[in-house]
Amino acid sequence: AMSEAEPLVGRVNDYGITILTLNQPQSRNSLSMAMLEALSVELDSIAADADTRVVVIAAQGKVFCAGHDLREIREQFGDADFQLALFNQCSKVMQQIVMLPKPVIARVAGVATAAGCQLVASCDLAVAASSARFATPGVNIGLFCSTPMVALSRNVSRKHAMEMLLTGEMVSAERAEQIGLVNRVVEESQLDETVYRIARTIADKSGHTLKVGKEAFYRQLEMPLNEAYAFTSNVMAENLKANDAQEGICAFLDKRKPDWTDS
Prior knowledge:
- The chain is an alpha/beta fold.
- It is 50% helix and 16% strand.
- It is built from 12 helices and 10 strands.
- It has helices at 2-5, 33-47, 70-75, 80-99, 115-122, 148-152, 158-167, 173-178, 188-203, 207-221, 225-239, 243-253; strands spanning 9-14, 17-22, 54-59, 63-65, 104-108, 111-113, 125-129, 133-135, 171-172, 184-186.
- Helix 10 runs antiparallel to helix 11 (225-239).
């Protein structure tokens, strides 16, 4: 009955902004198999949800996300199949965020460590309270943060990623902003307002345009320069055929507000 009253992941939609809330503060919102599966279900559902224009990932309690559930991992020490399935499931969720056709913003109050830091790095944008802290501390317990480093090393430069990975030390919100792990740091009292303002700004754009652009961004990142330009030239030519692109250009030239149809 307890679990029926309290879903692992809360979901509310507010004028096109869907807020997913990690809702297990008693276990520091750790990414147990159950939590990962719940997240996966929500992300699948959101991908097809026309009412969602922007996603915010938030968390209950003082810890945003402590990473994998070490108690669960210890219980399954003898089960290599479970361990691999766990890391595969986590990797799947991180990629679902990247491939989601809508922008995702991490709203970070509190600590984000290991796979929790990976979660922040996997989001398109991240806004942190000044008290937030970040780490990839796996090295301290003998289990290097090898999957978190995939997201981390695609956000921050190599030296900064390696420093976090090799020392396992906590990084302040301010430092996280300097190295590019988060977009901005605000007082906790300003966190919701700041996240909402950014989300609202993005939600006012054409959903079709955002989908095209987000997908192209992550695909071109992995390409050599000449391939990236060939690929994005095709994307732009294709984008120009869309109603919203033609409407947007006409609206700009006619000095009026565009009327998006998300097509």
